[in-house]
Design brief:
Layout (H helix, E strand, L loop, with lengths): L7 H10 L7 E2 H8 L4 H10 L3 E4 L2 E4 L1 H10 L8 H10 L16 H10 L6 H16 L3 H19 L4 H16 L3 H19 L4 H16 L3 H18 L5 H16 L3 H19 L4 H17 L2 H19 L4 H16 L3 H16 L8 H20 L13
Helix pairs in contact: 1-3, 5-7, 6-7, 7-8, 8-9, 9-10, 9-11, 10-11, 11-12, 11-13, 12-13, 13-14, 13-15, 14-15, 15-16, 15-17, 16-17, 17-18, 18-19
């Protein structure tokens, strides 16, 4: 039947489709991956001729047809690398506007590509590994992300050396992942390696260098080195404002992060100023619908909590929880952060039962992770504090009603 197919463009399209998994795949994924003219029309022709199965906006190449094409009419590697390049360009770890957590349908596709071409070691394969690193990272699956990025680094160091711009890209991603799992010394090591390379290759006034400054700042902040964190974040902001302008999402990211530093320094008015600047930019770009907006709402809630403005803290933390559930799901570490912070707001309000409920939800997320999260001890300690307040209230006399908890 393939030999009888007169349309060469359709033959080529079938060969391209044969490298994809035999599952229902959304048109939007084929559109981004293949970037072919009149793709929908061509796919419909394949459906009409019995090659493809269509279900609403999805298409599926049956496994028997896929196997036949791969055996009888295989496509050479050089003819599919444009697909890999398209995916890597779209799912770019440096793109702060992307909602990667909503792109998990790409995971089985990229995994099959990497498995099918496991013997290939080039920039295109590294691009796919970067993309899948980013996808797993965005889902909070940091250990899987780490494994993919270690493979990418191995290829890059072999092909281009450990002092290349390509290697620097892997160092940045490794640093970000190590930061999330609480391995701060390794995070700092990789970010500094990336920074030195990028400064040498790109010069100091470059957005990729600013990204390194931003990452290093966040590591120093977690190391409780606020002055160092502030220095690097101010450098990042200066570059981002100059190159990208004051309305860019990367600039907003720096405003958000500098707010966190001032919050740690107990300069809450300054922190509030920068957090509001970040939110204004993000809301303008994303209309309030993005994981980065959720992070800002969480941070704003924490600033208000520190100021004792608890009703405002409650409002913004609830917004953060709703957005994080929608974009990240019910088991993401970022949602745990919001649950913990919401519990602390309720504890300050002396609503101990609600505080306990949120803290338990946060702890449940931590206990189901595949690694030891750095917040486990903090959350466990916070839960104990809540339980102590409840016990104190239960033992308290009538005169001390509501002293520790209003809802016990």
């Amino acid at each position: 039947q393939f030999a009888k197919e007169s349309d060469d463009e359709l033959k080529s399209l079938l060969q391209y489709l044969s490298i994809f998994p035999s599952i229902e795949i959304e048109f939007s994924i084929f559109e981004k991956s293949l970037a072919l003219d009149k793709l929908r029309v061509k796919l419909q022709k394949l459906v009409d001729r019995g090659w493809l199965i269509k279900k609403e906006e999805s298409y599926k190449l049956h496994q028997i047809i896929k196997t036949f094409l791969q055996i009888e009419h295989p496509i050479v590697y050089e003819e599919v690398i444009f697909i890999f390049e398209n995916i890597a360009t779209f799912i770019d770890p440096e793109d702060s506007t992307l909602i990667a957590a909503k792109l998990s349908a790409y995971i089985p596709i990229i995994e099959l590509f990497l498995e099918s071409y496991h013997d290939k070691k080039d920039r295109y394969i590294c691009g796919l590994q970067d993309s899948i690193t980013y996808l797993y990272y965005s889902l909070g699956k940091y250990i899987i992300a780490l494994k993919y990025q270690e493979k990418a680094l191995n290829i890059r160091e072999t092909l281009f050396g450990d002092s290349s711009a390509d290697a620097a890209n892997s160092y940045v991603l490794l640093g970000v992942i190590y930061f999330e799992i609480g391995r701060l010394s390794e995070a700092l090591f990789y970010q500094q390696k990336a920074m030195i390379l990028r400064e040498e290759i790109l010069g100091k006034i470059h957005q990729d260098v600013a990204a390194c400054y931003n990452h290093i700042s966040m590591v120093y902040q977690d190391m409780k080195k606020s002055s160092k964190a502030l220095e690097y974040q101010q450098n990042a902001i200066a570059i981002r404002e100059k190159i990208l302008g004051e309305k860019h999402s990367d600039t907003a990211s720096s405003y958000n992060n500098i707010a966190l530093i001032y919050q740690d320094m107990k300069k809450l008015d300054v922190a509030l100023h920068y957090e509001q600047k970040a939110i204004a930019i993000y809301e303008g770009i994303f209309e309030g619908e993005h994981p980065n907006v959720a992070s800002c709402y969480n941070n704003l809630a924490e600033i208000y909590r520190g100021m004792g403005r608890l009703s405002e803290a409650l409002k913004y933390q609830q917004k953060a929880i709703e957005l994080r559930k929608f974009f990240l799901g019910d088991t993401h570490p970022d949602l745990m952060v919001s649950y913990n912070n919401m519990a602390l707001i309720y504890l300050q309000l002396k609503e101990c039962q609600k505080a306990k409920e949120f803290m338990i939800q946060g702890l449940a997320i931590l206990q189901n992770l595949s690694y030891l999260h750095p917040s486990v001890q903090t959350v466990t300690s916070n839960l104990k504090s809540i339980e102590i307040s409840i016990k104190k209230q239960q033992k308290a006399g009538y005169k001390d009603k509501g002293r520790f908890c209003k809802d016990v």
